[in-house]
Amino acid sequence: MKTPQKTPLSHIRNFSIVAHIDHGKSTLADRLIQMTGGLDTREMKEQVLDSMDIERERGITIKAQTVRLEYTHTNGEHYVLNLIDTPGHVDFAYEVNRSLAACEGSLLVVDAAQGVEAQTLANVYHAIEVNHEIVPVLNKIDLPAAEPERVKAQIEEVIGIDASEAVEISAKSGLGIEKVLKAIVERLPAPKGDETAPLKALLVDSWYDLYLGVVVLIRVIDGRIKKGQKIRMMQAGASYELDRVGVFTPKLVEVGELGPGEIGFFTASIKEVADTNVGDTITDDRKPTAKALEGFRPAQPVVFCGLFPVDASDFEDLRAAMGKLRLNDASFSFEMETSAALGFGFRCGFLGLLHLEIIQERLSREFNLDLITTAPSVVYDVVMTSGDVVQLHNPADLPDPVKIEEIREPWIKATILTPDEYLGSILKLCQDRRGIQTNLSYVGQRAMVEYDLPLNEVVFDFYDRLKSISKGYASFDYQLSDYRTGDLVKMSILVNAEPVDALSMLVHRSAAESRGRMMCEKLKELIPPHLFTIPIQAAIGGRIIARETVRAMRKDVTAKCYGGDATRKRKLLEKQKEGKKKMRQFGKVEIPQEAFIKALKMGDN
């Protein structure tokens, strides 16, 4: 165990890197680690802080990661820099928020060719809200398409921060990295804190490690935290004795203690991540601090969907796998549910569609599970005639319409940045999705549109449609704004007069007919013919709004008749007709699993 030299507060810098997806955050983090000798050349790999396979494959950051860098300035002074690499995608905004709360400053990375994007704005506003000092960094300066002067003007115009001293770098080739380190030391403020005060630390993150148990990432505000000390979590009310205290360089290095302004981790034989609340205040058990820190708002799931195993015998494996994922992702919630069509499964809550996709992929990849996902839905507030407000996560559980006063649905504020030529199609897409335009302005050559949109229209396939309309050039960011009353109805799908609960959904009355027709047409192609005709219907209450019929397979019952009287053939055909009628009454329609999966694929062509 190494005990580092006590670093004076004035020589500590805590900073995070904020940027839009793909503007080079993780690559810049790699170069900073390499430059300060955090890892030698042999240990270095691309996107060293993106440790999950999915992060590396998709080229996105999902979990915020921390690293402590040692840097010697040209004036000979020694500095400790704590870097937190944050995700850029809208679904993981809660990760960004809590990472920023542990820092005093941010590097704002902007692609010198693409300029300011939707998430650049969202993330920099998070940083401004927590009073960060912001240093603009222009990345990819060596690209032929780079226009640093235009992008500087854009940063000043759109975000309103001075970009005249923006650091110009190329994170890939390592150009200008020394300037970034200098800017961190010279332009970002040092943390404040009192070493003699009782221990007060912020719980920034926690995750489960197979060997160490629960690892807790903290930022010390006042006092010191040492190995063997007994600490208390103020919100959870639990006390623990510390087994080890350390920092990430990005390798895990144990240290004797951490002082004010430092970011590090501890382990304390904590059994479950659920016992550690992000945003909790950690203090000394014997000499607690008087006032707890302001925590974070807990991450609220906005999208819900059912996950069912394709093979019913995998149910217990799915339960265990979800428990394990929950250990490392506190924002993922689930509860058991059953469905007549799909058997036992779970109703899960996610922060958005990417979050849903990532969890689904991790379940199938890390735990080898085959899953069916039901149509994603959002949380509705149902106001009953009695005055009670019920939260509805699953459209199949909608109470009797007679008892409902109104249904309120969540709306979002969406910001879309797009090149001018795609603006018309994007405005049409938003109008079709019941959007209300609130603003339209220009950022250089690109249009910035702000819309109020109902979330239930966005969770289906809005993002995919936006990307295909704009050939991938439009960027999209949203935040939940409020709940508004909507004319919503429950649409049920009936197969052979039996409702299929997994396919029921809440839709706006104006879109119900087209959505119902689309679903029926899709199912007609997917359900294989049986020996009897199968009606597929979409219904609102008792009213059928769309219908398709799967033709019966015809067995040639007259094949054995050679010659003879025509009445003999007729008799056989009549008998077949009666049989089919009876079959339709009692026959069960087998809907293959693939049909469910395809019918639930978002994407209305």
From TrEMBL:
PROSITE patterns linked to this entry: G_TR_1, G_TR_2
Parts of the chain that traverse the membrane: none
Keyword Protein biosynthesis belongs to the record: yes
Catalyses which reaction(s): GTP + H2O = GDP + phosphate + H(+)
Keyword field: Cell membrane, Elongation factor, GTP-binding, Hydrolase, Membrane, Nucleotide-binding, Protein biosynthesis
Gene Ontology CC, one term: plasma membrane
Keyword Cell membrane among record annotations: yes
Alphabetized CDD domains for the sequence: EF4_II (cd03699), EF4_III (cd16260), LepA (cd01890), lepA_C (cd03709)
Record-stated family: Belongs to the GTP-binding elongation factor family. LepA subfamily. Belongs to the TRAFAC class translation factor GTPase superfamily. Classic translation factor GTPase family. LepA subfamily.
Name of the protein in question: Elongation factor 4
Record organism: Pelagibacterium lentulum
Lineage of the organism: Bacteria, Pseudomonadati, Pseudomonadota, Alphaproteobacteria, Hyphomicrobiales
